[in-house]
Amino acid sequence: MTLSWALTDALTITRRSIWHWMRQPYAIIFGLLFPIMLTVLFGYLFGGAMQVPGDSGNYMEFMLPGMFVMVMAFGIGETMVAVATDREKGVTDRFRSMPMASSAVVLGRAIADMLYSAVLLAVMLGFGLLVGWSAHNGLGNALLAVGLLLLLRFAMVWIGVYLGLVIQGPEASATVQTMLFPLTMITNTFADPDTMPAWLGTIAEWNPLSATVTAIRELFGNPGVGGMDHPILLAIAWPVLLTAIFFPLAVARYRRLSA
């Protein structure tokens, strides 16, 4: 089977996902509104009580880079639910019975989710501009920051695909989605880890998401916390490592599914 055949099959799966979104736009609308709601909640309800590191008193500029990262990380749950739903409804088995590349289903899902994530990130960046956030270090650094965010999302896609192929039942799915909240919130997004209890601050500093938050704050020129060496390098290394682990796991798990 040639590479072009596999890519054609993957793009067919991608078009299926896009068509599904067009027929059920409420899921897309909620997905776009949820991070905006979180931004308003944390930024305006709690922002006045937060101390912003550095000279800037603009909490939105401090928080928004972390919110961009959180939105990319929450994609784990969206991908996982979509893959698990197809598997439980027998859609995946029907795909496996067709003469198509074995990796096309997971690759097509990944492409579709990356397209959706790009739209979601564009909406969040636009909303950030409306509420007082801005990028101060030029277009080149801003584009590099966007690239790091999408690289992180790419790694999250493969974690979501793998979990979607592994989990059994809605209870397990709900548990994984619940665990996304501590994963995304115990970071340096909302507060300096130095203000946390020592054990919690250590977890926040070692959370891979914190590296991306620190890196894009630096690239956007937003206020942030110090203490992390080479954040841009870490923001590349962590997603690459996660992709190297979960991409082969996802493809191998798909191939082991019973037809």
From TrEMBL:
Molecular functions (GO terms): ABC-type transporter activity
Residues that span the membrane, as ranges: 25-46, 66-85, 106-130, 142-165, 172-191, 232-252
Gene Ontology biological process terms from the UniProt entry: response to antibiotic
Protein name: Transport permease protein
InterPro entries referenced in this protein's UniProt entry, alphabetically: ABC2_TM, ABC2_TM_bact-type, ABC_2_transport, Nod_factor_ABC_transporter
Pfam family, one: ABC2_membrane
Subcellular location: Cell membrane; Membrane
Organism superkingdom: Bacteria
GO CC terms of this entry: ATP-binding cassette (ABC) transporter complex
UniProt lineage: Bacteria, Bacillati, Actinomycetota, Actinomycetes, Micromonosporales
